[in-house]
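Q: I have 464 residues here and want to know how they pack in 3D. Can you give me a structure?
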Amino acid sequence: MKVCVIGTGYVGLVTGVCLAVTGHSVLCIDNNAAKVKLMQSGQSPIYEPGLDELMQSTMQAGQLSFSTDLAAGVDHSDIIFIAVGTPALPTGESDTRAVEAVARGIGTHLNGGYKVIVNKSTVPIGSGDWVKQLVLEGVAEQGQSITGFDVVSNPEFLREGSAIYDTLNPDRIVLGGNSETAIQQMQDLYLPIIQRQCAEDPALPPVPVVVTDLASAEMIKYAANSFLATKISFINEVANICDRVGADVTQVAKGIGLDSRIGPKFLQAGIGWGGSCFPKDVAALMHTAADYGYNAPLLKAAVTTNRNQRLLVVEKLQQVLKILKGKTIGLLGLTFKPNTDDLRDAPAIDIIAQLHRLGAKVKAYDPLLSSGAHPADLDHVELVAGPVSLAMGCDALVLVTDWQEFLSLDYGSLTEAMQTPIMIDGRNALEPKALVQAGFQYVGIGRPAPVPPKIDTVQTAVAV
């Protein structure tokens, strides 16, 4: 099928590339000429493992191309994805100006053939009918007669760092719409994925397809992310109680996660959630609830718990170091999760701001950020090139992002470079006994500190 994807941010680019992988002819449109030129050279403007390689192979096969020409994209396609950004405004609602501009633009270029217009952007509940009206306004602006099109909501559930896998091996595909023709066309588009033709395990059953009305599809996206965020906030609250009563939250999480009604995922206590999706989607759902006269107290509590959790490592640093003014703190990782260079709403940003306010010097090492451009959010941070450089002269280290690299470091070599070998494990990802054996004072989140190994002493008789 012929597909146009408008917007080549995280969702749009990954969607376009993966649809090209499944055999469709995909034209990705973006109004940023420099960005398009970069992609035309086979380079991705975002970091996602494996994305560059898939871009290049599908481009060479003639399945994927890039352009700034919206008219060409509309003319090219049977299915048009709107995948532009909808960042959060200070009020919590989504900024939908880009969606509005694109929807009207599509209308001005409709050529009379039937099109399915797909909302892939995360948009406020009720946006399906709004987008349809905007497309019709674009048609009217050109003095055209109404052409055939339908609007479908097809929310994304990608995880940064594993977005390609998630696209080709989804837990489900959600399609919201009122047109049987449009829904059938979308099912045909996704048939290779539904039948797991690109799956690592093709023996798995077909991917479930959930067909709903437009509003329910939009709500599914918000409800899914809000539930996961709330689940993380819940286990963090349990961890804080564990800290006070001497229980181990990792054992608690294992015990409750074996309950099939709960499940083990998103039960790793730590410094909380961040990134571009959870904060924005929870805020948008609370804003929608308020628009309709509902307070959403559970979601508000999840947000408050998460906000407080980010600064818990600073409190733990104060407990072991007392005064932080004049101390040097090293952060292992900065991004909000591993396998991404994304700093959007990362807990590290709040931790850095608080440490700086308290007079501490902050150093950091992140596998993707240390050697690149210095982001504005890190103005007060000394970025270094490796873990040993990070440990040099530090009074404590904090594991902020659980990169795989950090799980197998030679921590014994780090203690030798530090002023005081203290490790705050902000992700409960390290092995406490191994850290203690390496010479660290280990402090986790809701985990009792291991007892240092006893040192055998040999008594010798002294002759008088």
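Q: Anything worth noting?
A: Residues 5 and 81 are 5 Å apart (CA to CA). DSSP finds 18 helices and 14 strands in the chain.
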